Each structure stands twice: as structure tokens, then as C-alpha cells.
Amino acid sequence: MQGTIDGMQGAAPVAAPSARTLADLAKRLYAAQRWRWRWLQSLRPYICPFGDVIALVPEKSRVLDVGCGSGLFLLMLASFGRLTRGVGFDVSTDAIAAAQAAATRLDRPELVEFSVRSVAQGIPKGDWSVVSVIDVIHHIPPAFQAGFITDLCAATPPGARLVIKDMVVTPRWRALANRMHDLLMARQWVHHAGPGQVEAWVRDPEFVCVHRSRANLLWYGHWTLVFERRAATATSR
Ligand SMILES: C[S@@+](CC[C@H](N)C(=O)[O-])C[C@H]1O[C@@H](n2cnc3c(N)ncnc32)[C@H](O)[C@@H]1O
Predict the structure, then answer these.
(1) What are phi and psi of 83, to 5 degrees?
(2) Which end of the chain, N or C, is surrounded by fewer C-beta atoms within 10 Å?
(3) What confidence tens digit (pLDDT) does each residue in 47-58 have?
(4) What 3-state class would DSSP assign to 23?
């Protein structure tokens, strides 16, 4: 992980699992699914720094994963014993069906649940200790991105952590490479927001940015931000 500025409170540091370990895990989790799905999920750890993001999730977390796709992040967290509860939602019915099928291969499938829902319907409130959003912002139309971040903050309870991972805006060739990827894979012309922009959108003074990093995997450029929402104090209640 490059350029980490880390002042995380209360996080038990964990070693980031390797891409190879995660790819093998993905192969097992999606083994019963269509080859394309199995192939895509097992390649994803090589182009997305999931190991680094897993290491940002404390043990025994209650995680809401927004735009969870086929559930890979929550399923990996459950497999590494980092969850007491994982809830994921995504607008894609196919992706959620894949997530639900893959969850049956966990040792403890009852730890995770997946449902079809759009962020336009709001972000569900709960006693989450972590709200994660991985590679979703660039799929949200630019006019709604700031409001999406505001909604994510509202769904992050006091004392919890908001983990955001997305694709770089600069260098422009890396952003263009990802746009081509999404044009091919998602048939969508995506709109990236940089970490500086996202930090500016997190206007709530209760949120403190405790981690910033960048990572390049092949031609894909990634940034990650972690915010902690201050626990409510007697005077602020
Ligand atoms: C690049 S995928 C990332 C999936 C997952 N977070 C991961 O990292 O594997 C982006 C996901 O965002 C989802 N998405 C896009 N717009 C959405 C919306 N309005 N509401 C919920 N999910 C959305 C897509 O269906 C897709 O699964």
C-alpha cells in the first residue's frame, strides 16, 4: 500500500492477505457458478487491493457493504473471521443471486445476508461498525455523487468507520484505462471522483479521516480513505 497516513484508533492490525490467497478463496466460493462469474471473481483480487481493504476492517465487525456486487468482500471478511454480521446490497439481481449462492459455501453462512436494493432507495440504518463502499462511486451519476457520500455518512453510526475505495482520477491514463474496463464489462461510461473531492464532500465535523492510501495494480489505480465518526459524547447527545 502506498502513501499511507495512518492514525487508526481501535484497529487490531492484520496482515493483508495476498492476491493469490484471495483468488484461490474466490475460486472456491464461486465454484458452483457459471464459468464467467467464477473467472471474474477469481481475477478481481489481482486488480483490486482487497487484501489492503480487509486489513482496514477490525475483528468482530458488523459490516454494511454498499453496492456489494456478488458479495466478494463480505464473503472474504467472513472467511477470515472478521465479521459478526455482514449485510450487502446491490442493484443487480444477478450479482445478488451469485452472492447468495456463494454464501452457502461459507462455514457460517448465517453471518451474511444479501439483498437487491438501489442506493437511490437510501442506505439502510443499523448498528454497523463499518460501512464499506468499494468501486461504486464511479458508477453513480456525477450529479448524485455528493449526495451519495452524505447518505453514507448518515448511515455510519457514531464510533463506526466508513471505508471508501475507488479508482484514481490522475494520472489520466489510469482513469482512462478503468473507463475502458467499465465500458467493456459494465457497458457504462463511468465518472471518477478523486479522494480530495470525496473528502471535501464528507463535510460533517464528526468525521475524521484516519487513513489515506493509493495502490496501483497492473494499469488500475486505486485510492482508499477511511473515516471514523466520533462516538457521541454526553454533551453532544
Ligand atoms: C465495480 S462493481 C463493485 C462491486 C463490489 N463492491 C466489489 O468490489 O466487488 C460496482 C457495483 O456497484 C453496483 N451499483 C451501481 N449503481 C448502483 C446503485 N444505484 N445502487 C446499488 N448498487 C449499484 C453495481 O451493480 C456493481 O455491482
Answers:
(1) -115, 140
(2) C
(3) 999 999 999 999
(4) helix
* pLDDT over 90 at 1, yes or no: no
pLDDT for 14 equals: 64
Residues 6+ away with beta carbon under 8 Å from 176: none
Mean pLDDT along residues 197-226: 97
Mutate to test the pocket of ligand 1, among 63, 136, 138 (most ligand atoms within 8 A of CB): 136
H-helix segments, the chain: 19-29, 35-47, 50-54, 72-79, 93-103, 142-154, 172-185, 195-201
- What pLDDT does 233 receive? 66
Cβ contact 1:49 at 8 Å: yes
CA 139–ligand 1 middle distance (angstroms) = 7
| CATH fold label, 2-229 | Rossmann fold (3.40.50)
Residue 147 grid coordinates: 449526495
In angstroms, what is the span from residue 146 Cα to ligand 1's centroid? 17
Give the pLDDT score at 232. Answer: 73
- One-letter amino acid for residue 164 of the chain: I
Which residue puts its alpha carbon closest to atom 10 of ligand 1? 136
Contact 234, 188 (CB under 8 A): no
Listed by start position, the domains of the chain span 2-229
Residues 190-207 have pLDDT tens digits of 999 999 999 999 989 999
Q: Residue of the nearest CA to atom 13 in ligand 1? A: 67
82 has pLDDT over 90: yes
Residues within a 6 A CB radius of ligand 1: 67-69, 72-73, 90-92, 95, 118-120, 134-136, 139
Strand partners, 200: none
